[in-house]
Amino acid sequence: MLDLINVSLQFGGEYLYRNVSLKINKLDRFCLVGANGTGKSSLLKLINGELPPESGDISKKKNLRIGYLPQDNVTHKGKKLLEEVLSGLSEIQTLQEREKEIHTLLEDPAHSKDGDSALLQELGEIQHRLIDLDSYSAESRAEKILKGLGFSEEEFDRQCEEFSGGWQMRIALAKILLSKNEILLLDEPTNHLDLESLAWLVSFLRSFEGGLIVVSHDRYFVNQVTNKTLEIYLNKFNVFNGNYDAYLKFKEERDRLTESQYIQQQKFLKEKQRFIERFRYKSSKARQVQSVIKQIDKIDLIELPDDQNQIKFRFPVPPPSGKTVMELNKIGFSYPGKPIFRDFDFTISKGEKIAFVGPNGAGKTTLAKIIAGKLDVQQGHRMPGYNVSISHFAQDVYDDLDTELDIMDTIYSVSEGLSIPQVRALLGCFLFTGDDVFKKVGVLSGGEKSRVALIKILLQKSNLLIFDEPTNHLDFASKQILQNALIEFTGTIIIVSHDIDFLKSVVNRVVEINRTGVKDYPGDFDYYLYKKSLLTENLSEANQSASASQAEGKLVNRKDVKRLEAELRQQKYKETKDLSAKLKNVEDKIHASEKLITEFETEFAAGEIYSNPDLAREKTTRYNDEKSVLDTLMLEWEEVSSRLDEIEAAYKEKFDALG
């Protein structure tokens, strides 16, 4: 559908990518990854036609429809919600207006009948096109999408300007999903979603019959909706088959190999340098010395990848609190016309790491602010425990920053006991590098200010940490650093977040807050998901029980059972025959690939290959290609094996049902 051919793009005199090519086919689902500043958002703008390439060509299928969701700065006003979402269907609206014009002309008695045949032909073409665009169900589809993204039916007639920034992004996303786009470009689409709307979006994108490129640091989300990973690395594009987790396995192996090659190359260079130093002043060795110098000059130096994950951050050791950290007794809180809590009791114990989850607007942020002491309860009592000290990261916390200070001074002023290099390393963890650390806080974007505020809170010696969406402006690496620090933290934590992967490894209690009340799940996030799945299954079974109970099964005799079993075995054999053969074929290819990779690694470990740089490069390329082949084979094996397991399980149920 779309090709980038030898494209280059510069920013600030530096190349983001140079002479890169990329093909996007129907059903290609790319997770776009790369370090901060490598040009991920720029690539989406390039594909969408908002940025011209420095050089190269972008070839698109005729009339290709592309939907682009930017990361922020989207506002809608002047229309009601449903009207605004439908306004994204510009082609449908143009066709419908022309359809009305033709009907008006045909019904006008004063209209000359001479051109009726041409008008009728045009009308037929318009109606066919409207059917292709699914126009007659547009409004019902728009309503379904809006509900999926968390809007209530009562909000369809609200003016768009009444919605906050996060909801504005949902409106933009709804418009894109409603349009019949062939490629979706989504830049951090999950930042403002809750768990329910996230689950709905995953389901929608999995059934979307088009291409997708998504920039997201929500690991659960990208694993669910992508089947390829596009990496921007050293100004080049690398494409890997498989989701983000599959890419991480490859990257880990690639980094290990690169480090091994780097060590071997450095050893080789040191030996050659010693030779030069030893013989450079001996005339009898002059020719050999010059030959070695030329040999070194021709070598492509191996660069070690930057690895933020090697940097570890630990919270300052907090003072111990009492066993009970916080008690809320019969509290009540309402916004004008909207009750949130009534006679609500809640206790937080020392060492608990609690996730607040639920739909937006149900009260997660409100409860976090009440616990933090930022909102006063309107009834009941808020009772902090002994020696409790609180740090609260809110979504608007950067309003408290001194805009006249630069980033370095802001953090260094609260970094008790840290040296300047340590502070710079910490800032690097959270995407502030080089001269960026000397930027004034006042000129930073909202996301950058949010990260500065987060770092400030991480350095405070508090024993109760409250975070409201802390991962929204972090990349994978910085999120992992925060995740590891929270796991090791010895105090008490409350996190409002929709990031499933992040919550899974951190929390040991989940509190679900929705419009019908509050439900406590005393376990980790997997336990919460398990209990929710049981609840869904039970509701589904209850809904089906009436119709199921009306159908009475017929008793069959033993002869019938034998006949049915034989038929099932025959069906199972037919269904699994080709898959079993395919699995055997894939396994044979995997064994051959693994053998070849082992041979390469043995050769690399011996080190002799590095005396011939051209051969070393060729072998490394072949090695990397073979690793990609193996990754693809492993994914194919998992897919075929999983399908066979599903068939086996399905037939087991059928056999069990026969008794």
Number of helices: 19
Number of strands: 18
Instruction: Report how far apart the termini are.
Output: 53 Å
**CATH superfamily descriptor of the largest domain:** P-loop containing nucleotide triphosphate hydrolases
CATH topology of the largest domain: Rossmann fold
Strand fraction equals 15-25%
Q: How many discrete structural domains?
A: 4
Q: How confident overall, as mean pLDDT?
A: 85
Major sheet, described briefly? 6 strands, mixed
Q: Order of strands side by side in the largest beta sheet? A: 5-6-7-3-8-9
- Rg: 31 Å
Helical/strand content category: alpha/beta
Query: What is the overall shape?
Result: globular
What is the helix fraction of residues, given as a range? 40-55%
Task: Please give the CATH architecture of the largest domain.
Answer: 3-Layer(aba) Sandwich
- What CATH first level of the largest domain would be assigned? Alpha Beta
Return residue spans where pLDDT drops below 50 for at least 5 consecutive residues: 541-557
